[in-house]
Amino acid sequence: MTIPFDDEPVCCGICRRQAVGLGYTPKFGKRIVWTCDDPTCLSLGKTVFHMPAKNLTQQEAFSLSEAGEEAGAYLESIGKFSLAELTEEEWIRFLKTVLNAFGDRMRARLLSQAAPF
Ligand SMILES: [Zn+2]
Predict the structure, then answer these.
(1) Taking ligand 1, which is a single-atom ion, which protein residues have CB atoms under 5 Å away?
(2) Using CB atoms within 10 A of its CB, is residue 105 exposed (0-12), middle (13-18) or buried (19+)?
(3) For residue 82, which phi and psi values (nearest 5 degrees)?
(4) pTM score, whole prediction
(5) pLDDT in tens, 50-100
(6) 34 alpha carbon to ligand 1 midpoint, in Å?
(7) Ligand 1 centroid vs 80 CA: distance in angstroms?
(8) What are phi and psi for residue 64, nearest 5 degrees?
């Protein structure tokens, strides 16, 4: 994945949920890292903007793997191990688990790398 410099707010550059009209750009910058309205995501815009793409990609991969583990734990909790067996409600909860866990893990990982100010 690459740093999301969309022309308009589409996806949050940190958690990938819907972006709002908030973001980070350096003074006189031409690109913006859009964010959602989560205060932690807002505070991490600068960190992501200046993070080397390779580092961000690595953090995203770790976060996605951890989100997958959490979604797997959900499947275990309901005793289903094939996605084809899920009801529509279970499928939506599975997807939300991946999405929300990814965002939580990204925020936690990036906070640990953010400059302390
Ligand atoms: Zn966000």
Answers:
(1) 12, 14-15, 36, 38, 41
(2) buried
(3) -125, 130
(4) 0.84
(5) 999 899 999 999 999 999 999 999 999 999 999 999 999 999 999 999 999
(6) 9
(7) 30
(8) -65, -40
40 CA distance to ligand 1 centroid (A)?
8
Q: Which two tokens stand for residue 90?
A: 């279970």
Confidence tier at 4 by pLDDT (50, 70, 90): low
Residue-range domain boundaries for the chain? 22-113
Structure tokens, 62: 């770790």
CA of 86 to the centre of ligand 1 (A): 28
- DSSP codes of every residue in 47-69: HHHHS-HHHHHHHHHHHHHHHHH
Strands (E), 1-117: 22-24, 33-35
Separation of CA 88 and ligand 1 centre (Å)? 26
Confidence band, pLDDT 50/70/90 cuts, at residue 17: very high
Interval 7-30 mean pLDDT: 87
Which two tokens mark 44? 């991490």
